[in-house]
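Team,

Forwarding the record for the chain on the shared tracking sheet. I've put the sequence and predicted structure together so nobody has to dig through attachments.
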Amino acid sequence: MAEDTPRKTVEELGKLFDLTGKVAVVTGAGGTLGHALCKGLAVYGADIAGWDMKTDIMDDMVAEVEGIGRKATATAVNVTDDASVKAAMEKVIADHGKVNILVTVAGTAGNRQPAETFDIDEWQKVMDVNVRGTMLCAKYAGAEYEKQGDGGKIITIGSVRGFLGHPGGYAAYGTSKGAVHLLTKQLATEWAKKRINVNAIAPSIFWTPLTQQVRDDPELVKIFMARIPMGRAAELDDFIGAAVYLASPASDYVTGLVLSVDGGAVAG
């Protein structure tokens, strides 16, 4: 019979959500959600390597993280380009010495269109950013974790649209997020014995430039709110607790989870 696993001390339990000494790569760090998660991870002790298409859109994030007392860097990355992601990960190691956490926020909603007239090039653009981009970032983080030999955390960003269809023109976005959910589970099973935890956060709708097309249509807003039992869109701070949990030692035995942060949308 296997020996019981040693119990954590009171001091260790007190540090379950502590990210001190960790380095987190956050893609899409210049956007509203990416910026919020950078701030949240930094508050709990992580240094931040921000990735986005341009460095200047991460200036506010860098200033806020440094104001918290943590190190922050900003790198221009095209997450759909293998060479760009590889070079960016090499820069993280050069700048920070290691990587412990990856959060793949970079994504696009594309232009929502009826399926029967959906522009297939637009459909492919959404797939490239949301699915290919997630895979490439996870690929290089996973390789680095394996090289470091001490595991690591990967948090992908899915969506409630990855679980459920919707009449709002989501043939591209919903399909891409469903793929992200399954990719999360696939990587989790491949890497579990390497102590690489791969989980997803699946948000309900929240108001950002990516969802402005919905917000501008009062009828669509009514449809969305009717499908959320709490009756409101998510707020950015609603996602920070989930990200800190999945990035921290508190979730060391959790992998392959798609965690809905959605006001009850998937529940009913």
